[in-house]
Specification:
Blueprint lengths: L14 E5 L1 H10 L4 E6 L5 H13 L5 E2 L1 H7 L7 E6 L10 E5 L7 H10 L4 E5 L1
Parallel strand pairs: 2-3, 5-6
Antiparallel strand pairs: 1-4, 2-4
Helix pairs in contact: 1-2
Length: 128
């Protein structure tokens, strides 16, 4: 993965990242081929590492430990793993879906996705 500088999220970049253990596991499960790099924090405990290690091995990726990078990318102090991935643009499938046009606050996306699950929505499209 060639990224000159790691910065906070940039819409124009061809890469993005998942912050945290469970988002990274879901990334590894759903889009294994898009995963480019896994970065861990030195405070990541062994039990948590076991949760992701099987998925990481299947991707043939060696995680790198970089506390400073994680601190730079994550606003939360308890983020101990980051999964970098190449952005992808799949077509919407069958089923219920939601389309968000230029969402202002990306922090609301988690709430929106949980609501979608509760109402049996299967696809989310974000349009710039």
């Amino acid at each position: 993965m060639k990224m000159k500088k790691y910065k906070r999220y940039n819409k124009k970049s061809e890469y993005s990242y998942a912050l945290g253990i469970y988002p990274t596991i879901e990334l590894l499960r759903a889009k294994r081929k898009a995963v480019a790099k896994i970065v861990t924090h030195s405070k990541l405990n062994k039990d948590a590492l076991k949760l992701v290690s099987a998925h990481i091995k299947e991707c043939h990726i060696t995680p790198k430990c970089d506390d400073q990078l994680i601190s730079k990318l994550s606003p939360k102090e308890n983020c101990y793993i980051v999964g970098f991935f190449k952005k992808y643009y799949p077509a919407l499938g069958k089923g219920n879906h939601a389309v968000l046009v230029n969402p202002r606050n990306p922090g609301n996306l988690g709430t929106i996705m949980r609501c979608m699950l509760a109402f049996d929505f299967t696809n989310l499209a974000i349009v710039r």
